[in-house]
Amino acid sequence: MAKGLHVSSVYLSKMIKQELGESYIQILTRLRINKAKQLLEQTDWSIREIAEVIGYDSQHYFSTAFKKMEGVSPIRYKQTCTRSSELN
């Protein structure tokens, strides 16, 4: 993205943080985790498949990032969603 704007990645990151209050990585991670939650709720895809679709090379790293943001593992999140949809 920085290359397309003809600025350094350091400068772009600094401007994003200054304007939005979050780093580029924080924004990207939040967007990825939100998409993962949607996929966990709406598909029967495996955790590995979801990790790959949202841009993680490692299922383990994805699970760690997910748990850090959501407080539960992706597997537990999916189980919770499945249980609540069965109750409705």
TrEMBL record:
<feature type="domain" description="HTH araC/xylS-type">
    <location>
        <begin position="1"/>
        <end position="80"/>
    </location>
</feature>
<dbReference type="InterPro" id="IPR009057">
    <property type="entry name" value="Homeodomain-like_sf"/>
</dbReference>
<dbReference type="InterPro" id="IPR018060">
    <property type="entry name" value="HTH_AraC"/>
</dbReference>
<keyword id="KW-0805">Transcription regulation</keyword>
<dbReference type="Pfam" id="PF12833">
    <property type="entry name" value="HTH_18"/>
</dbReference>
<dbReference type="InterPro" id="IPR018062">
    <property type="entry name" value="HTH_AraC-typ_CS"/>
</dbReference>
<protein>
    <submittedName>
        <fullName>Helix-turn-helix domain-containing protein</fullName>
    </submittedName>
</protein>
<keyword id="KW-0238">DNA-binding</keyword>
<dbReference type="InterPro" id="IPR020449">
    <property type="entry name" value="Tscrpt_reg_AraC-type_HTH"/>
</dbReference>
<keyword id="KW-0804">Transcription</keyword>
